[in-house]
Amino acid sequence: MTEKLTNITPITEFLLMGFTDDQVLQGLYVPFFFLSYLTALMGNLLIIILTTTDRRLQSPMYFFLKNLSLIDICCISVTVPKSIINSLTKSHSISFLGCASQIFLFIFLAGTEYALLIVMSYDRYVAICHPLYYETIMNRGTCLQMVTASWASGCVYGSIHVAGAFSVHFCGPYIVHQFFCDIPSVLTLACSGEQILEYAFIVTSCTFVSVCFLFLVASYIYIFSAVLRIPSAQGRFKTFSTCVPHLTVVILFVFSGIASYLGTNSKSASSLNLFMSVLYSVLPPSLNPFIYSLRNKDMKAALGKILGGKMLPKT
Known about the structure:
- By secondary structure, this protein is mainly α.
- It is 73% helix and 3% strand.
- Strands 2-1-3 form a 3-stranded mixed sheet.
- The radius of gyration is 21 Å and the shape is globular.
- Its main location: membrane.
- The chain crosses the membrane at residues 28-50, 62-81, 93-117, 196-223, 244-262, 274-294.
- Residues 43-292 form the G-protein coupled receptors family 1 profile domain.
């Protein structure tokens, strides 16, 4: 008992050692992360500007997209800049408070994004399956309530998980084999038998996420069945080309996250764990502007107006 207690020392910092053991990855990930961050920042900021300044982009769909873009900017800013700075300065440390803040903010924003993606799928379901009632159902008050509920649920979600993760004692060494502080990697540093509460939170959360995902899939099934009844082949293709990428991003986001949180986590580095973390934390914020908005005709028209009144070329 005495030996176990002596291993528990006050923590002031963790070491983020995600890519340090692989020289090839270490040389490639900084340019990749920098380009991904720059793409996410510019693409999502452009969407926020367009949906704020253009009067034609004031429908519920664009209101949700503006919030999604804000979330994506914040989410990727929580993890990627710190990782790039650590690599360039050869300093891999992150303070205890910084690690806890990173976990809370990332889980808060990821939970908010997932809730908002469900709201957006419901918005598309009403627009396509019940177009005559769309303006009545998706009125301004309802949209504000849905967005507020998404942000609030994300905040509660983040608070629960950061409390569960840091309710344990850590026995060291305080090396996180990840490029940011995430719950599975931090829990591997906890003293034996103390992770049960947070693991219970994770299993419960993944179960809830899976149930919500089934509702999301059901809404897309109704959407696709309605699309198949569209007489115009061009209309069917246009709707499918919009909905399929949306569903693909959601699947990528959900299943890579669940795999990372329910998968096996060890105290040694794992290229698979790093790859899965990149899939759910770096790629979605970078790809969302292209998939959700910048392929949109109205969005391109608004962009052309800002660039000098010229329409962008059709793709």
